[in-house]
Each structure stands twice: as structure tokens, then as C-alpha cells.
Specification:
2 domains, 281 residues, single chain, mainly alpha
Length: 281
Amino acid sequence: MSALILALIFWLSAWAFNVWLSNSRWRTTRAARIAVPALFGITLLVLWEGIVRGLGVSAVILPAPSIVAQTFAASTDILWIDFVQTFLKGALRGFVIGVAAALICALLIDRSAFLTRGLLPIGNFFAALPIVGVAPIMVNWFGFDWQSKAAVVVIMVFFPILVNTVQGLRATDAMQRDLMHTYAASYTQTLLKLRLPAALPFLFNGLKIATTLALIGAIVAEYFGSPTRGMGFRISTGVGSLSIDLVWAEIAVAALVGTMFYGVMAWIERRVTFWHPSQRG
């Protein structure tokens, strides 16, 4: 019980420090913005460790973070192979294909009222498809390798990108469009110099949503057929063999990769849409 008591004391102390830091005059600094979530995450891990060790929870039910860290360090070769298979081959390729398809469809919809009434409902239909129903069909169509996982990812990321891009292309007001018309600008010139820049914040909102959906889709798709590698495959077999520490190590990798993928997209957004009010300090 001593480990549990120490963990609770540490958690309460860190919580009080976090509250103080969040309300202090340094709360707007970069260091404070990094320290608050980092300290919050560390306190959760310490509390997790204390609860597991203090209550004697079996590692089959919930392994301690220290055990997960040891498994992580001892299984880096397996984790790397799974990362390459799931993210680089399946999720990332499906993400790129899905984004390209959504952008092309958004431009077509923007040009045609008929397609607006036709393609958007179809996009909504794809968004409503249950992934657990789509994944085995894609595996049956495209095989057990990364192609079927990429196909699932395409379906998952297509609709958020499509809807946000279409909404962004319509974000300009009538006065701005009339001004471009006054300058005798063609549709392409208006699109490239006015409407696409105005649509970028909407597009990046869709891209950031799609980053998490892509990894989730690839992992879930691997449950229904995969080579003997991949995060989803390893999680499925790990649960079956009661290797829960390896399962949590795979979950940690997926969380880190998803966070980094989102962070990269947010970094690109800040560089590309620096002029937008949401990016101003």
C-alpha cells in the first residue's frame, strides 16, 4: 500500500503545482504550455504505477508502466516492423490517396450544382459505413497486405476532407468574389488566388481529423487479415496469448505516432496559414 500512498501524494502535489502554473503569470509562455500537459501525463503514469503495485493488480489485467517500458525497450525491432507495416505502408499511403481523391471531388463539386447534390450524399454514405463491416470486405478485395488497409483508410479520411474543403471553398463573401470579377479574373485565377487560400484553414481542420482516423482505420483493418506483422495484428495476437505488456507497448507506439502525425500537420498549418487570425499570437 505504500506505493499507492506515495503515488497519491505525488499526484495531489503535482495537481496543485499544475493549477498554480496554469494560473500564474507564466501561463502564456512556451515552457508553461509544454510543462502543464507533460506534468499531467507524468502524474497519471505515476498514479497508474502506484495503483497497480499498491493493489497487487495482475500484469495480465493491467501491467504497470514500468513493465510496459521494459517490454517496449526489449521489443523495439518488433515495434519498428509493425510501425512500418501499419503506418508507413497502410495508414500514410491511404491518407495521401484519400486526401487527393477528396480534393479532386471537392473541386468537381464546386464547379457543378448537380455534383453538389449527387456527390455529397455519397460522401456522407461512405462516412456512415461501419469500419468493422468495411474492413473484411476490403481485405477480401485487395488481399492481406497494406493495400486493403489503405483502402479502409481512404474511406475513413475521404469525407472529413471533402466536407471541410467544400465548406472552405464557399467561405469567401460576395464582395471578394465581385472584386475578382471586376479584375476580369478567370475561374482558375479566382480559385488559386482567393478561394483556395480562404479554404486552407478548413482543409487543415479536415487533415488534422484525418490523421487520427487514418491510424485507427489501418489498425482496425489488420484485425480482419494481415501478414504476420502490423500493430493491429500484434494487438490481436497479444491479447490472445495474454501478452498484455506487448499490447500496451503497441498502444503506446500508436499513441506516439498519432500525436506526432497530428503535430506535423499542425506545424504545417501554422507555416502555411500564418496570415489567418487563428494563427496570430
